[in-house]
Amino acid sequence: MYNKIHDPANGYFSPQGVPYHSVETLLVEAPDQGHETTSEAFSYYLWLEAMYGKISGDWSKFNTAWTTMEKYIIPSHNDQPTNDKYDASKPATYAGEWNDISQYPSRLDSGVSVGSDPIAGELKSAYGTSDIYGMHWLLDVDNTYGFGRCGDGTTKPAYINTYQRGPEESVFETIPQPSCDTFKFGGPNGFLDLFTGDASYAKQWKYTNAPDADARAVQAAYWALTWATEQGKQSQISTAVSNAAKMGDYLRYAMYDKYFKQPGCTSTSCAAGTGKNASNYLLSWYYAWGGATDTSAGWAWRIGSSHNHGGYQNPMAAWALSNVNALKPKGSTAVSDWSTSLTRQIQFYKWLQSAEGAIAGGATNSWEGHYAAPPSSLPKFFGMAYDWEPVYHDPPSNQWFGFQAWSMERVAEYYYATGNADAKTVLDKWVSWALSGTTVNSDGTFQIPSTLHWTGQPDASFSGTGMPSANTGLHVTIADYTDDIGVAGSYAKTLMFYAAKSGNAQAKSTAKALLDGIWKNNQDSKGVSVAETKTDYNRLDDPIYVPSGWTGKMPNGDTINSNSTFISIRSWYKNDPDWSKVQSYLNGGSAPVFHYHRFWAQTDVATALGQYGLLFPNG
């Protein structure tokens, strides 16, 4: 698997060494094109090379992965030039999120109180810079759109963004925009006035971090450190490990409410935070930061996120950042923050665990994205209202079993590394539920859960010590099943780490059966794959919302106006070698079938194969 992923003929990496989201270019899911990449892919790249170092003893590849990540997806000082103008007492100006895309642009409202940022000073003190050390979530690796760097039109990879208009904005309704908007493309104000309403607009840069990816990078660095130390080669990766600790320091921004307000908000007038009392100690959906491109104008902002999803938590990273000396961040309160977060995350899982065992959606401190009053019947987790589909609704954010596998794999690693009893309690119930929904046939074909349906809610609010009690009124049903290989790889890792510590024979045998089945039935020249029928591609000609009267241009000249569709502002897609299959479908033919090779999925399978051999060397 490693050799296939690294074979240049297979096309997993750009000429710069950046891992693509997928080998195939025509792919629309979270990224809207396969040759974009995500911080997720980079974090998996680190994991792949950590496993390679363990097996081969060669740590140069892990170091290359870290330096490539640092060069291309962690913004350099020149890409975030005005952070020194940031005022931690006024982190950002409030703008509400809205369920209906037509409510955008969202007006900035300086009348809403915003809390203070308690970690900016200690981060600057620790690292001697005002810059943020975190990954932006999305890159246009081949500069397919043509934004380039800060409007130059040519530099690649290029920082871009897509989503920015509330929970109903699916990928098929997005308007991609450059992360550095110099008004060269779009309308008179670039793309800014599609999203934010203001009296006037300034050229600016802005980045959004996906906390689960940065936490996964820390997780990969932990295993690299563990394995290199076993080999007496810890010193060879000391720089990368130190930078992982640094990344974990800045990742604490994900613990904060979007506008640094205190938990329990039911209106925009709710109390602004001071010190740490705006921290939820969970990994929220994002943190973001931005500022003026003009250093003489000089302003900058930072926000957290009010929405917390069960699938984004990473107790393994929290444990490593608070307990492993080489990964302890320099920030003066970082270790205590991550120690608190570790406990809080496990409590969150327990509070969200359904009667059957699956983990429900999450909790928010900003109901409907604008601090509305949540229904009074909803239970609260440390003041935040239960939300079965936090962040996005098209499709519902917690219907995908992959979030279960990804998240519980981290819990299983934490349990394996520490023997933590509370983690085991969550896993005992989850594994039993997941196994009951898993079928592996004698020929190696398999079915694992895919779409989940949710009813009910946690039985009670929780804001105490210890663990929340079991839920009797929160339920999950499995609506359909899948043979998705990437999710199966992650799920197998969950089972094997759990089995290695608990001795559960069924978990061990099922992990092996899933991997053996993939190896027997799903290998191809590029790695592993299954046939995917993409019925959702009927949305590739859907209209996108553009306010009446707004008009602009994409870099290639595609017009953006109220008549635009997904494909009309991405006309280059019609030159894709796979487009004819989609066009036939849009014309009334059958849904196209693809064999995708996503970087994360290939790596989940590859590292699962490697990890099984490490945990069970006798098979």
TrEMBL record:
Keyword Hydrolase: yes
BP GO annotations: cellulose catabolic process
InterPro entries, sorted: 6-hairpin_glycosidase_sf, 6hp_glycosidase-like_sf, Endo-1-4-beta-glucanase_dom2, Endoglucanase_F_dom3, Glyco_hydro_48F
Active site annotation, chain numbering: E40, D212
SUPFAM superfamilies: Six-hairpin glycosidases (SSF48208)
Molecular function via GO: cellulase activity
The entry's keywords: Carbohydrate metabolism, Cellulose degradation, Glycosidase, Hydrolase, Polysaccharide degradation, Signal
Gene3D superfamilies reported for this sequence: 1.50.10.10, Endo-1,4-beta-glucanase f. Domain 2, Endo-1,4-beta-glucanase f. Domain 3
Record's protein name: Endoglucanase
Source organism of the structure: Microbispora bryophytorum
